[in-house]
Structures are given as structure tokens and as C-alpha cells.
Design brief:
It is built from 2 helices and 8 strands, in the order H-E-E-E-E-E-E-E-E-H. The protein is an alpha+beta fold and about 150 residues long.
């Protein structure tokens, strides 16, 4: 039997994915001002309207302090060192920053509304809080190191 290579595995996955039917997106509803909002919190916005920012959080999870909050460009994310807080909105989190023990955990919102982090990149979750918790689980007590930005 031939050895399974990355190329063969990716080819097989592409064949399988091509045969999977597309799933219908959940319907959106209009709010009082006529803006479309997704029905479920993890679903993406429709009609080009950006999804609402997730709620901020600050908690202790398995002995680690995890935080999440919206950020603005005023924090200056892409230049200089870590200041323990106000990073800018120029990253993949779409104006939302997540921290583990004061160190930024880089997060990204996927097109389907799910979230991933640099620590658990292949395990999408519903919220940035869940991404922070998954990172703590993956770190298994290790310290999160600052991730150099561009």
C-alpha cells in the first residue's frame, strides 16, 4: 500500500468536500432600524452588514485570567511592543482583542462566524471567550508568549 502523504490526504479531502452539499444559511431578521442581524450569535452577518462585536468578558478560567474586549485603532496594534492592553483594531479579530494573563491571544473571526486563535487554529469555536478557554486548555499551564505582529 502506498504511503499516505500530505498531498494525497489533501487530495482526498478535496474530493470528499466536493461531494458535500451546501448547507442553507440561517435567515436574518431586520431590527427596528431596518438593519439585518443574524439569528444566532455565532452566525455571520448578511448583506454586507458587519456582525455585532461579542460581549466583553473578564474571568479566571483554570487559574488563568482571560479577558476579551472591543478595541479601536487608537491603541496602535501594529507598531511597538506589548503594553498589557489597548491594542488596535488592525488585526484579524475585527476590532476585538483577547488576553490570557495580560498577553494578547491573537484571534480571528471566520466567515461562518466562528472564532479561532493562534493556539487552537484548527478548532473553531463559537465565541472569543471559548477561544480563550480553548487556548488555556491547550497551553496546559505553559505561559502564552507574545506573538510578533508583522
Amino acid at each position: 500500500m502506498p504511503e499516505l502523504t500530505r498531498r494525497r490526504a489533501l487530495g482526498a479531502a478535496a474530493v470528499v468536500a466536493a461531494g458535500v452539499p451546501l448547507v442553507a444559511l440561517p435567515a436574518a431578521r431586520a431590527d427596528d432600524q431596518g438593519h439585518h442581524t443574524p439569528e444566532a450569535p455565532g452566525t455571520p452577518a448578511v448583506s454586507g452588514t458587519p456582525a455585532p462585536a461579542p460581549a466583553p468578558f473578564d474571568e479566571i478560567y483554570k487559574g488563568r485570567r482571560i479577558q476579551g474586549r472591543t478595541v479601536t485603532d487608537a491603541g496602535g496594534h501594529h507598531g511597538g511592543g506589548h503594553s498589557g492592553g489597548g491594542h488596535g483594531g488592525g488585526h484579524h479579530g475585527g476590532g476585538y482583542a483577547v488576553f490570557v494573563d495580560g498577553v494578547e491571544l491573537h484571534v480571528m473571526r471566520n466567515a461562518d462566524g466562528s472564532w479561532i486563535s493562534v493556539v487552537s487554529h484548527y478548532d473553531p469555536v463559537e465565541t472569543p471567550r471559548a477561544a480563550a478557554r480553548a487556548a488555556v486548555d491547550e497551553l496546559q499551564g505553559a505561559r502564552l508568549l507574545p506573538f510578533p505582529a508583522n
